[in-house]
Predict the 3D structure of the following.
Amino acid sequence: MKRSNYIMISTLLFAIMFLFNTITIASCAESLTEVRGSYKMMVGDIEVTPLSDGVNKRTVEQQLQLLYGNKEKMNDVLARAYPDGQMESTVNAFLINTGSKLVLVDTGNGKLGSSTMGNVINNLRAAGYQPEQIDEVYLTHMHGDHIGGLISGEECVFPNATVYVHKREAEYWLSDSNLNAAPANAKKGFQAAQTILAPYINIDKFKTFEGNVQLSPGIKAEEVFGHTLGHTAYFVESKGKTLVLWGDIIHVAVVQFEDPSVTIAYDSDKAEAAKTRQQILTEAAKNHWLLGGAHIGFPGLGYVQANGGDGYIFVPIDFPVAR
């Protein structure tokens, strides 16, 4: 073979190998990203899979403007936690496999959030499940970052699922009179809730409940009002183990565990939200409940311990970096 032909063939083979390796590396990186957006664990005999919807970046100054409490103290805590002045706001959902049904607690932003959000469905699939398999969706409340993932366009993302929410929550957000009476900057939330839930209501796949009730074997709804009128936590219980999926009890972990009296602009009743947070943290520390939060760094799971004062220390579970 002529040397020129040999060089040409060798160059071509190298190019093909380089392209193949590049594709392989990209595929592996994509898989790792997807897998790290889900995390399977057991609560007794019940499998729970936290699903990351994504994160939003926010400056400490922007976050501080949303919080109500001792500004000087909060600013000091945030400055120590985020010395570069940048922080991330996390959104998590939780998939529960009871053995007889699949239940999804909250759905993330869907298309409502930024481009870094809306990843619940991708991570659900990466965990080995399909949206069509979901039997029931339990909503902690009806803010956009918890219900946005219910629809794609005008279609149900979970066509076989029945959506459950507390009656007070549904009556508030789905009320035309409340929409009409809301100030201009608040109407968007009502309109989003009504648009998102309509496809499920139209096919009789939307139900409400009241009080502290058992919704499924191993899953109980508990009223934790304050953040919204019908804000609800879901207790997953099996073989003496308890996981509390508490929605938006905590928004800013580094601040609100240390000082549960701190509230946020999104709380509809700030006094009740602070009271509820203190109560559930006290019970969680006493009973050694595992906690799952929508706005705690993924996978959003951990325990609390009293810090000797009025606050608590959050101890996250170990999350394996290499999967």
